Amino acid sequence: MYVDGYGRFWVDGRYVRAHRFAYELVVGPIAEGLQLDHVKARGCEYRHCVNPAHLEPVTQQENIRRGDACRVAAARMADKTHCPQGHPFDEVNTYHDRRGWRGCRACRRASGRRRSGRRAAEGSVA
Ligand SMILES: [Zn+2]
Ligand SMILES: [Zn+2]
Predict the structure, then answer these.
(1) What does residue 92 show for φ and ψ, rounded to 5 degrees?
(2) pLDDT of residue 11
(3) 118 CA to centre of ligand 2 in angstroms
(4) How far is the CA of 111 from the centre of ligand 1 (A)?
(5) Does the reported pTM lie above 0.70?
(6) CA 55, 99, 107 angle in degrees (round to 5)?
(7) 20-35 pLDDT, tens per residue?
(8) pLDDT at 113
(9) Long-range pairs of 79-85 with CB within 8 A, sequence gap ≥ 24
(10) pLDDT of residue 77
(11) Distance, CA 122 to ligand 2 centroid (Å)?
């Protein structure tokens, strides 16, 4: 059996999440469409933990709801088609920052102009 650094391994030609496999083995099958949430409140912070006692099958929405604010914001952004200023998130107007978040080029250009204008006024270079 091959195990990689992400807690996944091959079983019967399938790529299986280790925590999912362990849960199904010990507790029982996970209903279609549900994800396993590692419940930190049960006293363990280990991200790749596969202890079925710490895991709970939840819907994707529930998993997102329980997640931190950044993940929630990213998920909300993902189904937006326009930025808050009404510019379309299309191929030309969309960029991704280092965190993988989507941004609006038109707004970035606008705020960049404002910033460089202020820098010029303050008399600094670059
Ligand atoms: Zn745990
Ligand atoms: Zn915009």
Answers:
(1) -75, -40
(2) 64
(3) 21
(4) 44
(5) no
(6) 130
(7) 888 888 899 988 888 8
(8) 73
(9) 83/107
(10) 58
(11) 27
